[in-house]
Amino acid sequence: MTTMEFQAAVLEHKDRVHSYARSILRDSEDAKDVAQECLVRLWRHRERVEPGAGCKNWLLRSAHNLCIDRLRRRSSRPEAPHDDEPLELRDGRPGPERLAVSVEVGGRLERALMELDHRDRAIVLLREVEGLSYEEIAGTLGLKLGTLKATLHRTREKLRASLMRAEVTP
Amino acid sequence: MTCDDVRLAIHEAQDDAPAGALPEPVRAHVASCAACRELASDLAALSSALRAMPHAPLPAETLDAVWNQTIRAMPSGFAHGLGFWRLAAAASLAVAVVSTTLFFVFAPVAPPGPTAVELAHASAQAELVLGYTARALAATRTAAADRVLAEKVSPAVRGVPAPSPSRSPR
Fold first, then answer.
1. CA-based nearest residue to A160, from A97, A110, A109
2. Looking at chain B, which residue has its C-alpha nearest residue A44?
3. Per-residue pLDDT tens digits for B4-34
């Protein structure tokens, strides 16, 4: 990966990495630190990372590992208050999918995601939001394919139930 | 087909990317079962909502920190250093190839020197020519002296007048 390709990759994936870290860690400051560290790591390993889809997967895997490190360190410390501020729907571009999701559903969905265990949340985000393959997710999270699919099915049902409790149709 | 079987089939259809069509027996069940129809509809909507979730933008100061630790931290001129050295090596190679070609095309070719046999032959021929010339000169000198003696000296010695000058026949 050249310097120019690195710059392009950072601009393309910076929000994705930050958003993933924020969803897993539920903390804005930690998410910024993880995103920064992840992108700097990409620079250090740029000779080994191919631009394109491989770069996106590499960044998400790296972000996930950094998040897990933070969560482990956190678990050895007293629980810090979570930053549960829901994501703002800042992307105002008109589009069939974006228009289909109301601000209310988006905010409630974000809260429903936050109620999940961090591993379940990671599975949903990597599969449904980022579109990684099952093999890539299984490799990143160290899960068997069967376990991964069963967890995803269960997590979808949890999210659906959470949204129904909030009387929001997904 | 039970509702549990259909539930699994609906999830498996959602697992495909893009979401696959339900098999015919499942569709027949869904058409007649309100609960399963609602599940299929909700999961499809949930998947759309998750895909449409916006990414949380990485703050500008964090992106700035990333640049500071990566491309801005490089020594001046190093950003394109690899390209520069590649260019320099290519230019050096091109100059070497062109110089070598021009040398062989335009350099004056020295004529090959005579061999020892040729020198000996030429020397013998030169000696032969010089011998002939020397003998010819000697014969000419003798003939001229004889003529002078016959025409000028002998009549005077003998007391007879010298004959009037006349053009000698060629």
1. A109
2. B70
3. 888 888 888 877 756 667 788 888 888 899 9
Do residues A68 and A97 both lie within one domain? no
Other CB atoms within a 10 A radius of the CB of residue B88 amount to 10
Please report the sign of the dihedral spanned by the C-alpha atoms of residue B102, residue B103, residue B105, residue B106. positive
| Cβ-based neighbour number of residue A9 at 10 Å | 22
How many Cβ atoms sit within 10 Å of the Cβ of residue B163?
9
Select from A14, A31, A105 the Cβ nearest to the Cβ of B49. A105
CA distance B97 to chain A (A): 29
Q: Model ipTM? A: 0.76
**Is A105 found in the same domain as A37?**
no
B17 lies in which domain range? 3-51
Q: Judge whether A104 lies within some domain.
A: yes
- Give every CB contact of residue A66 below 8 A, 6+ residues apart in sequence: A21, A34, A37, A38
Low-confidence ranges of chain A (pLDDT < 70): 77-106, 167-170
Whether B75 has its CB under 8 Å from any CB of chain A: the answer is: no
Tokens 């969905």 appear where? Answer: A109
What is the C-alpha separation between A125 and B95, in angstroms, rounded?
A: 56
